[in-house]
């Protein structure tokens, strides 16, 4: 987004929140950490947001939904702001993120398998012995096959 933040409109922060579905405090946070630029102000000093703010906030929210970290989003936005990026550069960042997502999926699948196997060994009876509590107490969890 250019330094002049585009043409200001009559959108207040609450309007921006309603349009995007983003929490007011989250918008403040994004402004505070520099992902969203400070909006221009009306003559009375009220913050006014424009279409570019809506688009940028929507970009940030979608990137968060896809699991990008704040720093990854900052890097993507920097590329967009410079306007000097190539599809190859963006693709590399996307592939790197995809590899992280796939690793997390593998970890979650392993956790699922261990939990399913352990819970299947639970008798569900009134006995105090429970395989799940034993696994949690031992601190040692074997990898699922």
Biggest sheet architecture: none
Top-tier CATH class of the largest domain: Mainly Alpha
Low-confidence stretches: 1-8
Which strand-content bin applies to the residues? under 5%
What does the oligomeric state look like here? Answer: single chain
Structural class: mainly alpha
Shape: elongated
Level of helix content? 55-70%
Total helices: the number is 6
Cα-atom radius of gyration: 23 Å
Distance between the termini: 50 Å
How many domain regions? 2
Description:
The protein is mostly helical and 145 residues long. It folds into 2 domains: 1-85, Multidrug-efflux Transporter Regulator, Chain: A, Domain 2 (Orthogonal Bundle); 87-145. 60% of the residues lie in helices and 0% in strands. The chain is built from 6 helices and no strands. The termini are far apart. Residues 1-8 have low confidence and may be disordered. It comes from Sulfitobacter delicatus. Pfam families: MerR, MerR-DNA-bind. Residues 16-79 form the HTH merR-type domain.
């Amino acid at each position: 987004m250019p330094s002049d933040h585009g043409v200001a409109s009559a959108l207040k922060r609450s309007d921006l929140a309603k349009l995007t579905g983003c929490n007011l405090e989250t918008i403040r946070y994004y402004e505070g950490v520099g992902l969203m630029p400070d909006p221009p102000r009306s003559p009375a000093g009220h913050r006014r947001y424009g279409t570019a703010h809506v688009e940028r906030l929507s970009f940030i929210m979608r990137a968060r939904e896809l699991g990008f970290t704040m720093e990854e989003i900052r890097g993507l936005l920097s590329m967009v702001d410079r306007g000097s990026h190539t599809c190859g550069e963006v693709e590399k960042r996307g592939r790197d993120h995809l590899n992280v997502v796939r690793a997390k999926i593998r970890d979650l699948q392993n956790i699922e398998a261990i939990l399913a196997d352990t819970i299947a060994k639970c008798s569900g009876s009134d006995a105090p012995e429970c395989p799940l509590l034993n696994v949690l107490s031992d601190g040692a969890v074997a990898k699922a096959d």
